[in-house]
Inverse folding.
């Protein structure tokens, strides 16, 4: 896992699970958010990532790319199923108080900005953002450039070209 920067108290890491052997061993076990980037749906890999992230207590799930909605729905299904499997009631929002929050957006820039500046869990501090890149082209350089821009005050609504 590569450290690609920091935004205030959040450390930012990059990892491509398709290229890293034993990638799940690199995931933190507390106080973290994940940014998943995917343009193609690889259901088996998404399911494995969802299970591994939930096993390691991810607190916020941000999904982006062409498959962002599918990723968010997968995590939501796994979260509910885990509640049911554990015998806990899943019929009230209060029963999910300590569960990870999920969000998705097609825009990499907006979702990455959100994961660094806004993603918040009311019961846990988020101190790490792990970027899991499932794209064929790889987004590490773009994310690294975005860290610099965000740390300089850039906002997604600036309509500035990021190319």
């Amino acid at each position: 896992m590569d450290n690609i920067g920091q935004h205030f108290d959040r450390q930012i890491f990059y990892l491509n699970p398709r290229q890293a052997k034993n990638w799940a061993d690199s995931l933190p076990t507390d106080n973290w958010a994940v940014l998943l980037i995917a343009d193609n749906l690889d259901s088996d890999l998404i399911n494995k990532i969802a299970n591994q992230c939930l096993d390691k207590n991810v607190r916020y799930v941000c999904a982006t790319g062409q498959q962002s909605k599918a990723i968010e729905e997968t995590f939501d299904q796994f979260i509910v199923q885990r509640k049911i499997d554990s015998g806990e009631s899943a019929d009230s929002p209060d029963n999910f108080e300590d569960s990870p929050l999920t969000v998705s957006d097609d825009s990499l820039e907006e979702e990455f900005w959100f994961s660094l500046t806004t993603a918040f869990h009311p019961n846990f501090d988020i101190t790490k953002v792990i970027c899991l890149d499932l794209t064929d082209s790889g987004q590490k350089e773009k994310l690294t450039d975005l860290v610099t821009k965000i740390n300089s005050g850039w906002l997604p609504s600036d309509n500035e070209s990021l190319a």
